[in-house]
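ingest -> validate -> predict -> emit
validate: passed (alphabet ok, no gaps, 244 aa)
predict: started
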Amino acid sequence: MAAAAELDLAIRQIDKLLSKLQANNPQCRAAEAKSLQERPANKTRSHAAPHVQSNGSPAANLTSSTQAATVDLNSLFAKAQLQVARVVSVQEIDSVKLYKCVVELSGGVMKQVMAGLKQHIAKDELLHSLVVVITNLKAAKLAGELSEAMILAAQAPVPDEPKAEMVKVLQPAEGSQPGDAVFLEGQTTAGSTFPKTLKSDIWKKIVAELKVHSHTACFAQQKLVTHRGAIHLESSIPDGAGIH
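emit:
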């Protein structure tokens, strides 16, 4: 026990001696001051957010992702062969919903279309009108009749009548002609090749992005146009209405 006490006393005396030496030595004081100055900086650096190498801010990265998604959607849209057509015949058949129509495309090509517009659009209103059709869907039989294309229309609830719906066909810009290509504003169909038959799952993805904005038909918020101008709809169709 006595030996331990003597050892402890000796250590305290050595510590006092070292403290006096440091106090009298300017170099020691400078080193200690430098050490104290560096400690907060090191602590700050250790808690700082890790550096992330990036070509831009998070907003820029988000914009890049959005642009990439738009390109992917546009590549899907480019597979759908949309054209202006003129309705040259509208025939009532034994169906509550369907008209049997014939539409004219470019070069006098005719296609039969079974259109589910009977409950929404009068026969005389549809006859001789210009519409937008998709022509490369798989032909199908509806009510026992062949349907070779589809007339596109917007659908929305009737105000104050939750169970009622209004349906209006897309209206090409004035001056459009049968066979005119329908494409996205700022793009073109020149040199485009369409699949002979568009797969139904791809068409469903396209339809999910077809909406009305400011009385204009849009895909992923991009206007549908012909070389004559935008594809529009009646003002009664609200923004956000789906197109199919």
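The helical segments are 2-24, 26-47, 58-77, 123-126, 200-208.
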